[in-house]
Write a structure and sequence with these properties.
Elements (H helix, E strand, L loop, with lengths): L1 H14 L6 H15 L2 H11 L5 H5 L5 H4 L3 H18 L5 H7 L9 E4 L2 H7 L21 H12 L6 H18 L6 E4 L15 E2 L8 H7 L11 H8 L8 H16 L2 H12 L5 E2 L3 H27 L1
Parallel strand pairs: 1-2, 3-4
């Protein structure tokens, strides 16, 4: 049984993309959301999280002493931020815990981007991907990020659900909303030559860098590690002002981020360099320009802020 589980885990690790925004990015989205809640709402979500079935081991035992001995406001914020990364932390726990809570496919959806028009014509009708955005209970193992977020929102909003179930659902809502706002958790690049089953959200595109970052997905995950000022700038204020239509449209978020990935991630620069590698019969390994990275950082910053605002709206509506 253990050998079978480890084999399944290895397959999951190979197939699934890395987790969005790294730990720092998820915590930033959670902090923004928490600060948007009223005092009573903060107390309520913290009370629910204290009913988490893994609270003692995964939350209380990990709380830093300076937080544990501090005021309730600091504890509640820490719990909220911890909840936003808990779905990733599960991968480090025991086999039994992973069997119960690890959900690899919940973190992404592979809406297709094609390297060339010919790739699209030849592959578009033959993709073996779960691209459905419809959800019908119960929550299941093989859902994509859109379906899983909708399913956990149903649990969170169910007045008859136990607080323990609501606590787990809240962790996933915080985390998956963050995932959805990392563009590469919405897409995969398909190419007949190199990615006939997709590039795993950029994980299969090697990057030439000196800082140890090895692939395109990791580049984007790392963009949200160092944002000192998370106040909404003019660009994000405009986006948030026009967010009414999309506030409850999780499908709309994913489709928008699919378009964003085509424009800002798989740019003409990136596609050209990939095609050069294909022409030279080399494994794709590309460099990214300073202009590309500058634009990507601006996109990532806006996405983190917007995700935080949307989390607050999701859990209070």
């Amino acid at each position: 049984m253990r050998a079978v589980f480890l084999s399944m885990l290895a397959v999951w690790l190979f197939m699934s993309p890395a987790h969005a925004w790294h730990e720092a990015g998820h915590k930033m989205t959670a902090r923004i959301a928490f600060n948007l809640l009223g005092a009573e709402q903060r107390q309520q979500v913290a009370a629910v999280l204290r009913a988490h079935p893994r609270f003692r081991r995964d939350f209380a035992a990990a709380m830093p002493e300076e937080i544990a001995t501090g005021d309730d406001a600091g504890k509640n914020l820490w719990l909220f931020e911890r909840a936003s990364i808990w779905p990733d932390l599960v991968a480090n726990f025991s086999e039994a815990v992973q069997t119960r809570y690890l959900r690899g496919t919940w973190h992404y959806i592979n809406l297709p981007v094609y390297l060339t028009g010919k790739d699209e014509r030849e592959l578009a009708n033959n993709l073996q991907q779960n691209l459905s955005m419809e959800f019908a209970p119960p929550l299941r193992q093989n859902l994509n990020v859109v379906q899983a977020l909708k399913g956990n929102l149903l649990v969170w909003r169910d007045d008859t659900a136990a607080d323990a179930d609501k606590a787990v659902a809240l962790c996933w809502i915080l985390h998956l909303t963050g995932d959805l706002h990392q563009p590469l958790h919405n897409v995969a690049l398909f190419s007949r030559a190199h990615f006939p089953t997709g590039d795993r959200g950029g994980n299969s595109i090697a990057i030439k860098r000196k800082d140890g970052v090895t692939n395109l997905h990791a580049v984007w995950d790392g963009l949200a590690n160092r944002f000192d000022n998370l106040a909404s700038d003019e660009n994000t204020r405009k986006l948030l002002a026009n967010d009414d239509v999309h506030l409850q449209s999780i499908n709309g978020w994913s489709h928008h981020h699919h378009k964003m990935a085509m424009e800002c991630v798989y740019t003409e620069e990136v596609k050209r360099k990939l095609l050069e590698q294909v022409a030279n019969q080399q494994n794709p390994k590309i460099s990214l320009s300073a202009e590309y990275l500058s634009t990507a950082r601006q996109v990532a910053r806006s996405q983190v802020i917007i995700a935080g605002h949307r989390i607050a709206a999701l859990i209070t509506n």
